[in-house]
Design brief:
The protein has four helices and nine strands, in the order βββββββαββααα. With about 210 residues, it is α+β, with helices and mostly antiparallel strands. The chain folds into three domains: about 40 residues, no CATH class; about 80 residues, P-loop containing nucleotide triphosphate hydrolases (Rossmann fold), CATH 3.40.50.300; about 70 residues, no CATH class. Helix 3 packs antiparallel against helix 4.
């Protein structure tokens, strides 16, 4: 008879807090557990929270947004739609930190798997928000993909750690948008419409 012990520190983003010991033998009928512990799995996740946001441009008496509230979990997509002039672009500007709400709040909140907050809300940092325009190729400025993605990176000489950090960010961003193995010498304007949008996403992701 042999004993097998395993301890998992992560399982699809979850933490198992109790090791499990299994006692087994050659006979399936003799398979049994030495003990039956309660396995606690923690599945924390974060949400973008917009709570009762109002916005009135300075010097005016008209609200462009009135009581906007929604919650968007991480690794998910959200769709904002409405008529022209309904405030879609204004809301995106608030999320990007280009403007500030007249009232209400925009923050990141972490939750446990049962929906309970795990910590105090964190303000949404504008530097961690990227905007991809409908026609991103209009804003491409470089002659090749590599220069386009790294445009705006620190140009001063950095140490090995900074260079490694930037290289990892570049590789990660390209993997996320499906550009891994893509030629960095290509002219961004020569890409197809779909690849132009992938590149635009990579440009934003590489800065996070």
């Amino acid at each position: 008879m042999a004993a097998f012990t395993f301890t998992a520190s992560s399982l699809f983003g979850s933490r198992i807090t109790e090791p499990l010991t299994l006692i087994s033998s050659k006979s399936p009928s003799m398979l049994n557990f030495e003990r039956t512990p309660v396995i606690k799995i923690s599945c924390d996740y974060s949400c973008l929270e917009v709570k009762d946001v109002h916005y009135r441009p300075p010097g005016t008496q008209i609200n462009l947004l009135n009581g906007v509230s929604f919650s968007l979990p991480e690794k998910s997509f959200g769709l904002i739609f409405g008529q022209s002039g309904s405030g879609k672009t204004t809301l995106l500007q608030l999320l990007a930190g280009l403007s500030k709400p007249t009232s209400g709040s925009i923050f990141i909140q972490s939750y446990t798997d049962d929906g309970k907050p795990t910590q105090s809300p964190k303000s949404l940092v504008p530097e961690r928000v990227g905007i991809v325009f409908q026609f991103p190729e209009r804003y491409f400025v470089a002659d090749n993909v590599l220069d386009e993605v790294t445009f705006g990176w620190p140009r001063q000489r950095g140490g090995p750690q900074l260079k490694e950090h930037l290289a990892l960010n570049l590789q990660r961003a390209f993997n996320w948008v499906g550009l891994n193995g893509f030629s960095l010498d290509k002219d961004p304007h020569s890409l197809s419409g779909g690849y132009k949008r992938r590149l635009a996403l990579a440009i934003q992701l590489v800065r996070t």
